[in-house]
Amino acid sequence: MGNRRRAREMALQGLYTADLLGLWDRDPQEFLPQESESPESLPFARKLLGGVFQYRSDIDREIEASAIHWSLHRMNVVDRNILRVAAFELLHCEDIPVRVSINEALELAKVYGEKETAAFLNGILDKVARNKRSPTGV
Fold it and tell me: pLDDT over 70 for what percent of the chain?
């Protein structure tokens, strides 16, 4: 597994914990392992986790605008946080190609989500990416 994929997993695990326990007022770094079997993944995991914490309300708004007939609180905790990681990348990481962010989210969905999670997330993330590229997008 690549360093960035492992970093995305670590960020997802931290977000899952923060979301499940409602600890959004804490330092995001508290949700990363102090010692990791892949220390080279930690800097990118910190960036993702910190970015989602920092921009969570904007990210959540963009996801909800892109998720027709779905609100975030109705989504599975895993799905919601995979979306947050990918949306952060799409909206704030210009150095990561759109397709890479979406494909990595779908890979996480295959491991941590339900059978139909990948298709569900793909539709939402495609719309987030299209909205970003439009003149009225975030």
Answer: 93
